[in-house]
Design brief:
The complex is a heterotetramer.
Chain B lengths: L12 H4 L6 H21 L2 H27 L8 H17 L5 H20 L7 H21 L12 E2 L3 E3 L2 E3 L2 H23 L2 H11 L1 H6 L4 H28 L1 E2 L6 H14 L4 H24 L6 H22 L3 H15 L5
Helix pairs in contact in B: 3-7, 3-10, 3-11, 3-12, 4-5, 4-6, 4-10, 5-10, 8-10, 11-12, 11-14, 12-13, 12-14
Chain C lengths: L10 H11 L4 E7 L2 E6 H17 L7 E5 L4 H12 L3 E5 L5 H10 L4 E4 L2 H10 L8 E4 L13 E3 H14 L2 H9 L5 E7 L7 E6 H15 L6 E3 L7 H14 L2 E4 L6 H8 L3 E3 L2 H16 L3 H22 L6 H22 L6 E4 L6 H9 L4 E5 L9 E2 L18 E4 L4 E5 L6 E2 L3 H7 L6 E9 L5 E6 L4 E2 L5 E2 L1 H9 L4 E7 L6 E7 L1 H10 L7 H5 L2 H19 L9 E6 L19 H7 L1 H9 L3 E9 L5 E9 L1 E2 L13
Chain D lengths: L1 H23 L9 H32 L6 H16 L4 H24 L7 H23 L14 E4 L8 E4 H23 L1 H11 L1 H6 L4 H27 L5 H15 L4 H30 L7 H15 L14
Antiparallel strand pairs in D: 1-2
The chains are: A alpha/beta, B mainly alpha, C alpha/beta, D mainly alpha.
């Protein structure tokens, strides 16, 4: 494990994503208040905080589901404003969801394949006749997807409808679908929520492997500190929409504000 | 039970992704086609062709069209007869104004025009969902109803408002006899079914289903809602347009403005509910069901030796349709096609239950 | 077999032969990335060549040993052949063995080179590195997770292949000449038998012995390169090795490697092997599954199933053996085949099986008949690592549930006065590696191998095995006591997974029983019997009664065989945990280590004979995830009814 | 200040302007007599009130059970038929009471047999279920009550009366019955509005509408609420049925009337009672205006076979409206949660 951490530490690079003074509110309700932090290439960046701290809102802002009233997001130097989710995805940011957002009506394979659509080019006519490029494309992307299936060890469920899978596995499929985008940055929304210890360990392993083998930058949300601390390089702490801490796991652990925020928060 | 899958392993993705991966299914499908093309023409009477088979084939096509939109892309439409109407009148006018054009070309053009109109009425789907969209599509229904009833140009100034089509002739083949009509329609249907099947198992199909199952997630993985929804509308309307043209030219021959009214739209909807949302097979089953049921209701009393007024049968029909819709939505939301699929699974696992 | 293989006296030579005769025929298929990736003989040979050249470049030379630890993978088999190309010896090790168990073979043969499938295996090898200083090269196939390993001994197979290709380009002739140097009398492989006694021995087998036996059996069954085998058991076990290495090399047929352990069943359904091998426990597990799944079937299905299985039980075997049965029966069987047996074979993945073998231990007669009755040509064979497997095989048409068939061509059988079976055959092993006394003890001057099995040849020349000679003991009153024989009879009941019988030198026979969690659990649920877990269920009075009935049935049979009527089981208890290879209670091939168990559970044994009704037990258990915990329980002890010996009839 | 007011509400404003324009447009043509104009306006308002009535039925049910009740029209027809046929055997008031009872039973049956089994299905499924209900009711109603054209006699003189003769020359012709009907309808609409805002049941209802689970958790019996709502919807349908019936005669086409109410709820916003009312008036007036003033123009321009634009005008209006303000005039915006 430490060996791996070192392996990562050497490769951490420049800032790729910077959130600057983002504020977001629904009607009267304030979800985020002037939040700023940055994410460096190849690092594992955690956003933690008690339930309702605005973590998910933060992700939704980053990948364009919500548009903040104030503040900007700078991605690879370029500032983006009111980008729609699919544009964000196209620019190399993928994500998973807290409460599974898989495509219930499709098989595991199709769910992951759908993550490849951005890279599929053949036009409708070719698809309709399923000839030449369209057919080749289907096969090429199938190959990529199979690599991912192999990577996340879900071979046995390839053709099962996702609805029939146990929760833990569905989480894995969700991750697989995100990986299919070959993202530069991967946003994980409570990847370990509702998992048993063993599943959590597996998920940690997968997250580290992704970061390690594909060099993917990872931003993950958790409300349960314990898991996050040993896999992330830097941690942002939100509470009631405000940033109350930012730094290495140890610094954050020591941070009084954080401790207070977490007092009484059950795990 | 009939399945013997040992040794049917796939060593290439192409073979793994083929339409019917299981040998026994391929055999069955082949037999079915041979039967449909080879045997049916000799065994079925002209009456049955005209009253049952031909309407079934055309409605199946329309149902497939609607299913692509509602069942696969999850965009509800209560006004799809409108696009059939567009197709029918487009074909009528094209054939009328450019007589020398091959009918197949006319069909395609009619479909394209319907597709264009479909996209137009699909635009609201970008802002609104579910119920609101239902109303938007109703607008299409009422508008086209009015358009073709009132704008004389479309009906070539026929004072009755109803239009007459010349029998179809292409490449010297005069499609006149019921059997010929049947074979022609069957050919068209097979091709269009194949195309639909290809679409739904290509990435466009996956984009539609993604939209249907979880639109936010779909957009987050990079699917463009505009593209996904409008293509669905376009292709769906294209299918209905073609179906409409066929309905007019092959089935009706001549029709009044209200031949494509709300009732037809609702019937299409019922076909895919009863047959099965998101299933091409379901479109067929549903169409068959909707075509056969009224005829059964008309015949049944006589078999039972009862005297029932036509009014009564039409009321019964309404009631039974209504009851069935509710029944299916409650008991098997995925329709008869689902039952078929389950049965097939059971046969594959036979003698085991699961 | 049509083609002429004379002069092809080593596996590498056979490989070259196939690359000439059938370069594009499949040699190995592996379910990987969702499809069956296929290696033609040509491609397989290239892989072997690259690996061999690579090994040579790293100094691997004639007589060196190559340890191979991994599941069934093309590379694993390629590695075996690569070692043999260089005149080396492949030493496959059990991939499910714990690190400690790997130390002995490596030390014993002072092994320098090892091929490991993946991170898991590499970790084990690294763990024992301190005890095995000789181990200098470890090549891993699957790079996943290996990125941060920096031990000098490690190298990926891909790298090795690369190196091999380079040195091959430098000197293309090298390997050909190396292969040419090999002769049949060279050692081909070494298999470590965990041995029921516990001390592992390295069984040295030559190319000739393996090839000769593989060919004899292949000819007998008429195997061709059109046959297909599913390789799903440990390659380190001679049983799997002969079917997935020796015989394909002789006949050129294709072996298929499943995607993963949990997909074996579906992969088997995909592939539909034509030639199948499994130890009885596998067939047993399958049958248990079948009956359990049928339980949930609709009433109509169940009655259909019951009816036609009855028909099959009556005439299925005869029809398979080609004996004549009534037209009506034949018709009914046809019908049954269409709606029950056929589909059943299909879901079991056995539609295409021409020949299925079982061996390793005795198989329950009912179990055996079941498979034959539904049209699967299941046969028993007798053999061991020391004999390159094939000693006796039941020929088509003369299959009996209680024998293992007549001797295969080239094999001589003989018996000692103590009924110990002696074997002389071209397939006999050369020696136990660096263990002359053991070799001497089991292989005498005349070249007879002392099997240690007690048995006899029946009227039709079929061999029948009763038990291990050393286990055949005597009760205090001097009457014969054959524990294995009892245990097998017990294990034939679905509710009993394992049984350990004691009685040697004692006044009566007692037994430990291991219930079958799946079957008994199901039985309990059917009765709406709540239970918290294994220990709880095992201690239920109902379960005890269930087991007692089984035991008493056995006692009835035993009573009918005067010679061992005295061995009727009088007292028993149900163990609080499953006997487990990891706890040293079973061998890797899941044979009970009776002595070890006896010592480990001495207190229980004393209680049994001490006439106690209850005994308290504290025990260490090792969970799947490696953690150990202790469980304590009060085990009941029950008596079973025994029956007066029926006089007259001769013992079977 | 002003700027961001506009910024927020520009769609509504533009629409308002458009409507105003539409209202004033006729005066572009000098020949338009103010008297006639007002007459048309009033006619529109009266029709509008009736639309509101049916729309209210939609809004109620949608608010309380999230169901888009396509069967509203069928209920109108059913109720009208019931009253018409019963009135042949008994005094009108009795017939109406009895019909009301029947509608309650109907509501109960629908809740029991359709809604409960389909609870927390997605809206589209429920919509289709109500389609089924609509079909069933149409068939059932005509089977039970017969399928000819029947009439309901409210005992109000049908002859037109002249009002405001002083104000406009030629005065304004109003059908007395329409007038009464409009009054009744208006009263009913107001009554319901009050019922929702003030009575406990009304409040419970709104609670259910806002959040089913929450409502249940504080002990509001969902199923009973639904029965109530559907009964109220039935009642509304009854009134609408009687009024329309007495006006146009009771016949199958009545069930189509409800289709007119769909654009109304779109315009007003599904969940808003006020919306239903205002929307109804807008549609009513707009439609009449279009029919009377726009229709001829179109016929002229494109040489149509007759006008009849009222068949789609409402829908097109709603459709355009959807594009600028999907949540309708008074409906609340919803946020996608992920």
């Amino acid at each position: 494990m430490t060996g791996m951490a070192d392996g990562r530490a050497q490769r951490i690079g420049e800032v790729v994503l910077a959130v600057e003074g983002v504020s977001l509110s629904f009607g009267g309700v304030r979800a985020l208040a002037d939040v700023s932090f940055d994410v460096r290439e190849h690092e594992v960046r955690a956003i933690i905080g008690p339930n309702g701290a605005g973590k998910s809102s933060m992700l939704n802002v980053i990948n364009g589901v919500y548009h903040p009233q104030q503040g900007t997001i700078r991605y690879m130097g370029r500032e983006y404003h009111d980008m729609d989710p699919h544009e964000v995805a196209a620019s190399g940011i993928a994500r998973t969801f807290q409460n599974l957002a898989l495509f219930k009506g499709m098989s595991v394979l199709d769910n992951i394949m759908s993550g490849r659509n951005l890279k599929m080019r053949s036009n409708i006519l070719l698809q309709a006749l399923r000839i030449g490029p369209a057919l080749r494309e289907e096969i090429e992307h199938r190959e990529v997807v199979e690599e991912i299936i192999d990577f996340l060890e879900i071979q046995a469920y390839r053709k099962t409808p996702v609805g029939r899978l146990p929760y833990g596995l569905q989480k894995r499929v969700d991750l697989a679908r995100a990986l299919a985008l070959e993202p530069r940055i991967l946003l994980l929304d409570e990847p370990m929520a509702g998992m048993n210890m063993e599943e959590k360990q597996d998920m940690c392993r997968f997250i580290l492997d992704v970061n390690d083998q594909f060099g993917t930058t990872i931003v993950l949300i958790e409300h349960d500190m314990s898991v996050v601390m040993d896999i992330s390089d830097r941690v942002v702490v939100l509470d009631y929409g405000k940033k109350i801490g930012d730094g290495s796991p140890d610094e954050v652990r020591a941070n009084q504000a954080v401790i207070d925020a977490y007092l009484g928060v059950t795990h | 039970m009939f399945y013997r899958e040992n040794g049917q392993f796939k060593s290439t993705y192409a073979s793994d992704q083929q339409m019917l991966p299981i040998l026994q299914d391929r055999i069955f499908m082949a037999a079915l086609l041979v039967f449909a093309f080879g045997a049916v023409p000799f065994v079925v009477s002209d009456y049955l062709f005209l009253s049952l088979v031909i309407p079934f084939l055309i409605l199946a096509l329309a149902a497939i069209g609607l299913n692509l939109l509602v069942g696969y892309c999850g965009q509800i439409s209560i006004g799809h007869a409108a696009f059939m109407a567009v197709g029918a009148y487009a074909a009528y006018n094209i054939a009328l104004r450019i007589p020398q054009l091959n009918f197949l070309v006319v069909l395609v053009l009619a479909g394209l025009i319907a597709a264009a109109v479909g996209v137009l009425f699909g635009v609201p789907s970008l802002r609104i969902k579910g119920l609101y969209l239902a109303v938007a599509t109703l607008a299409a229904q009422f508008f086209t109803d009015w358009l073709f009833a009132r704008v004389k140009w479309f009906t070539n100034y026929a004072h009755s408002g109803s239009v007459q089509t010349a029998p179809i002739e292409m490449l010297g083949w005069k499609i006149d006899a019921p059997v010929e009509k049947y074979l022609f329609l069957l050919g068209v249907l097979v091709v269009f079914t194949l195309i639909a099947k290809n679409l739904v198992r290509s990435h466009i199909g996956r984009e539609w289903m993604a939209m249907r199952d979880m639109d936010v997630a779909a957009e987050v993985i990079g699917i463009r809602p505009v593209y996904a929804k409008l293509t669905a509308f376009a292709i769906s309307s294209f299918y209905c347009g073609v179906a409409g043209a066929l309905w007019g030219f092959v089935h009706l021959g001549s029709w009044e403005p209200l031949a494509f009214n709300l009732t037809l739209s609702l019937n299409l909807l019922f076909m895919i509910i009863i047959g099965g949302m998101g299933s091409l097979l379901g479109s067929y089953i549903g169409a068959a069901f909707i075509v056969i049921l009224p005829i059964l209701l008309n015949q049944a009393p006589q078999w039972l030796g009862m005297r029932v007024s036509t009014a009564m049968t039409s009321h019964l029909e309404l009631m039974i349709f209504g009851a069935l819709i509710i029944f299916f939505l409650i008991v098997e939301p995925l329709g008869l096609a689902r039952l078929w699929a389950v049965g097939k699974e059971k046969l594959r696992l036979w003698p085991f239950p699961h | 077999m049509s083609e002429d293989l004379s002069g092809l006296d080593t596996f590498p030579k056979l490989l070259l032969h196939h690359t000439k005769v059938r370069p594009e025929r499949p040699a190995i298929r592996e379910k990987d990335l969702g499809i069956w990736q296929t290696w033609s003989w040509h491609r397989f040979a290239e892989e072997v060549r690259a690996l061999a050249c690579g090994l040579a470049a790293h100094g691997f030379k004639r007589g060196d040993h190559l340890a191979i630890v991994g599941d069934n993978r093309p590379r694993v088999y390629a590695a075996m052949c690569a070692a043999q190309c260089l005149g080396g010896i492949s030493v496959p090790l059990y991939q499910d063995a714990v690190a400690g168990e790997m130390a002995f073979p490596i030390q014993n043969a002072a092994i320098e080179y090892a091929v490991a499938e993946d991170q898991e295996q590499v970790d084990k090898l690294l763990e024992i590195l301190p005890q095995c200083p000789t181990l200098a090269h470890v090549y891993f196939d699957e790079p996943r997770g290996m990125r941060h390993y920096d031990q000098p001994q490690l190298m990926s197979c891909d790298k090795l292949v690369e190196i091999g290709m380079q040195s091959y380009r430098r000197d293309p002739a090298f390997l050909e000449t190396e292969i040419a140097k090999g002769t049949g009398s060279d050692t081909a492989a070494m298999f470590f038998t965990s041995g029921t006694t516990g001390v592992a021995k390295g069984v040295v087998l030559t190319h000739h012995s393996l090839i000769d036996r593989a060919r004899a059996a292949a000819e007998m069954e008429g195997l061709t390169d059109a046959d297909v085998v599913l390789a799903y058991l440990p390659p380190a076990w001679i049983g799997q090795n002969i079917f997935s290495y020796a015989q394909p090399f002789v006949t050129g047929y294709c072996i298929c490697c499943p995607e993963s352990a949990e997909t074996v069943m579906s992969d088997m359904r995909d592939i539909g092997p034509t030639y199948y091998f499994a130890p009885p426990r596998v067939f047993e597990a399958l049958l248990t599954q079948v009956s359990i799944r049928m339980e949930d079937a609709s009433a109509i299905k169940r009655s259909l199933y019951r009816y036609f299985m009855e028909v099959a039980r009556r005439v299925g075997g005869e029809i398979l053996d080609g004996r004549s049965v009534g037209a009506m029966d034949r018709l009914m069987y046809r019908l049954g085949d269409a709606i029950v047996y056929g589909p059943l074979r299909n879901v079991l993945g056995m539609s295409r099986v021409r020949v299925a073998y079982t061996a390793g231990e005795a198989i329950g007669p009912d179990l055996f008949r079941f498979y034959r009755s539904i049209g699967i040509n299941l046969k028993q064979l007798y053999g061991s690592t020391e004999t390159s497997v094939f000693v006796c095989v039941q020929p088509n048409g003369q299959v009996k549930a209680d024998t293992v068939g007549p001797a295969v061509k080239g094999v001589e059988l003989s018996f000692t006065p103590e009924r110990e079976l002696l074997i002389r055959s071209p397939g006999l092993f050369k020696e136990y590696y660096r263990n002359p006394e053991a070799t001497l003890a089991s292989k005498d001057a005349q070249g007879w191998f002392h099997t240690g099995d007690a048995g006899y040849v029946d009227a039709d020349g079929h061999l029948k095995i009763i038990d291990r000679v050393k286990d055949v003991g005597k009760l205090a009153d001097g009457s014969l006591f054959a524990p294995k024989y009892l245990e097998n009879k017990l294990k034939f009941f679905p509710f009993i997974k394992e049984a350990v019988a004691f009685g040697h030198g004692r006044d009566r026979v007692c037994a430990f029983i291991n219930m079958d969690m799946e079957a008994v659990g199901n039985w309990a649920e059917k009765r709406g019997m709540p239970y918290s877990g294994y220990v709880d269920l095992a201690s239920r009075a109902e379960v005890y009664d269930l087991v007692r009935e089984c035991i008493e049935k056995v006692n009835v049979d035993l009573a009918a065989e005067p010679e061992i009527a005295g061995s009727q089981i009088q007292r028993f208890l149900i163990l609080h945990k499953e006997l487990d290879a990891d706890d040293g209670e079973l061998t890797r091939t899941r044979k009970v280590r009776r002595l070890h168990v006896g010592e480990k559970y001495a207190t229980l044994l004393d209680a049994l004979y001490g006439g106690k009704q209850v005994v308290h037990v504290e025990a260490q258990v090792r969970y799947e995830d490696g953690r150990t915990g202790s469980i304590s329980a009060d085990l009941k002890i029950r008596d079973a009814k025994t029956f007066p010996a029926a006089a007259g009839r001769k013992a079977a | 200040m002003l700027k961001n007011v506009i910024g927020k509400n520009w769609p509504v404003l533009t629409l308002g302007v458009a409507l105003l324009g539409g209202l004033l447009a006729p005066f572009a043509d000098k020949s338009t007599m103010p008297g006639f104009y007002v007459e048309v306006l009033l006619g529109g308002l009266m029709a509008g009130v009736l639309y509101s009535l049916v729309a209210l039925g939609f809004a109620l049910i949608f608010k309380a059970s999230g169901v888009f009740n396509f069967a509203q029209g069928a209920m109108v027809l059913f109720a009208a038929l019931a009253v018409a046929r019963l009135a042949e055997r008994m005094p009108l008031w009795a017939a109406i009471l009895l019909a009301m009872a029947i509608m309650v039973v109907l509501a109960w049956l629908i809740e029991r047999l359709v809604l409960r089994p389909l609870v927390n299905q997605e809206p589209v499924a429920l919509l289709m279920a109500t389609l089924g209900v609509a079909y069933f009711l149409d068939g059932f109603g005509q089977t039970v009550w017969g399928s000819d054209i029947y009439s309901i006699e409210l005992g109000i003189a049908k002859e037109p009366v002249m009002i405001l003769a002083g104000l406009f020359q030629g005065g304004i012709l109003v059908n007395k019955e329409d007038f009464v009907a409009a009054i009744v309808a208006a009263a009913l609409v107001l009554g319901l509005a009050v019922f929702f805002q003030k009575t406990p049941t009304g409040r419970a209802l709104r609670a259910v509408a806002d959040d089913h689970q929450a409502a249940q958790s504080i002990g509001i019996p969902l199923n009973r609420i639904w029965v109530i709502v559907w009964s109220v919807a039935g009642f509304v349908a009854l009134v609408a049925g009687v009024i329309w019936g007495s006006k146009l005669g009771v016949q199958f086409s009545l069930s189509q009337v409800a289709l007119k109410a769909l654009p109304v709820v779109i315009l007003g916003g599904f969940t808003s009672v006020t919306g239903a009312i205002v929307g109804g008036l807008i549609i009513g007036v707009g439609e009449k205006m279009a029919e009377v003033f726009l229709g001829p123009v179109l016929v002229q321009a494109f040489d149509l076979a007759g006008g009849g634009i009222e068949n789609w005008f409402a829908y097109m209006l709603a459709l355009l409206f959807l594009l600028v303000r999907p949540e309708g005039l008074f409906g609340e915006k919803h946020i996608d949660r992920v």
